[in-house]
């Protein structure tokens, strides 16, 4: 029986008579107040079948509670000129009775089944077929090819080497500037050594600007490549 069980749930039971004689049947359950069976008894002709509707009444479902409800379909060959069904079952001997037992199973639909049902109920999207058929145009490529990438990588390496070279030169200039400052303190301010210090200091400024510019160029190229 599939849930939810807030309303009557009906399951059909098909009974077939494979013999060449008429068969009487009767459906029993361990929970008669919870189920309504129509028809609950009858006669099946040879080679025929009958549909029995089993209706489960609404109840509060507890998934932790195991179902103990069972059904039993009892059958016996119908005697000739049958008139009273109750008398048939009362007079039937135990070795003349046949039965099949069924256990009830309650199943609640999970969330995935609900989502699938919702998706299945949605109409399928309609494609616009009025456009001209043919291969879709390829979008313009925004990525660089291998040749340009290699050129940029080599250019970046060259700039990095140039930056390292300029950095070393700038370091040597700073060391030379410090040495000249020490000499300048020991000499007079108007001496040729002090003049040379000012000249070297003014010459080191453009080199420092070149180093800073090269660092920025290398930084932006490196981000572009990566």
Brief synopsis:
The chain is α+β, with helices and mostly antiparallel strands. Helices cover 41% and strands 20% of the residues. Residues 125-133 and 137-143 have low confidence and may be disordered.
Notes on the protein architecture:
It is a single chain. The chain is an alpha+beta fold and 226 residues long. Among the domains are: 95 residues, Immunoglobulins (Immunoglobulin-like), CATH 2.60.40; 34 residues. It is 41% helix and 20% strand. It is built from 4 helices and 7 strands, in the order ββββββαβααα. Strands 4-2-6-7 form a 4-stranded antiparallel beta sheet, with no helix packed on it. The radius of gyration is 49 Å and the shape is rod-shaped. The two termini are 61 Å apart. It is a single-pass type IV membrane protein. One of its GO terms (molecular function) is FFAT motif binding. This is Vesicle-associated membrane protein-associated protein A.
Give the percentage of residues in beta strands. Answer: 15-25%
Instruction: Count helical runs.
Output: 4
* Average pLDDT over all residues: 76
| Rg calc | 49 Å
Main sheet characteristics: 4 strands, antiparallel
| SSE arrangement, N to C | EEEEEEHEHHH
- The shape, in one word, is rod-shaped
């Amino acid at each position: 029986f599939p849930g939810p069980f807030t309303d009557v749930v009906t399951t059909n039971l098909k009974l077939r008579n494979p013999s060449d004689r008429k068969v009487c049947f009767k459906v029993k359950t361990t929970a008669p107040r919870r189920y309504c069976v129509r028809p609950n008894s009858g006669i099946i002709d040879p080679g025929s079948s009958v549909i029995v509707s089993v209706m489960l009444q609404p109840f509060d479902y507890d998934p932790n509670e195991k179902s103990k409800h069972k059904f039993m379909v009892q059958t016996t060959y119908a005697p000739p000129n049958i008139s009273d069904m109750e008398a048939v079952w009362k007079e039937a001997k135990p070795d003349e009775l046949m039965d099949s037992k069924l256990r009830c199973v309650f199943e609640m639909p999970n969330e995935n089944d609900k989502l699938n049902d919702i998706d299945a109920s949605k109409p399928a999207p309609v494609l616009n077929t009025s456009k001209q058929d043919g291969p879709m145009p390829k979008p313009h490529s925004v990525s660089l090819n291998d040749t340009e990438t290699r050129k940029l990588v080599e250019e970046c390496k060259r700039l990095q080497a140039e930056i390292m070279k300029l950095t070393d030169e700038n370091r040597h200039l700073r060391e030379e500037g410090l040495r000249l400052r020490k000499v300048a303190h020991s000499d007079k301010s108007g001496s040729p050594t002090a003049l040379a210090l000012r000249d070297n200091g003014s010459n080191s400024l453009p080199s420092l600007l070149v180093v800073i510019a090269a660092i920025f160029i290398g930084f932006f190229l490196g981000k572009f490549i990566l």
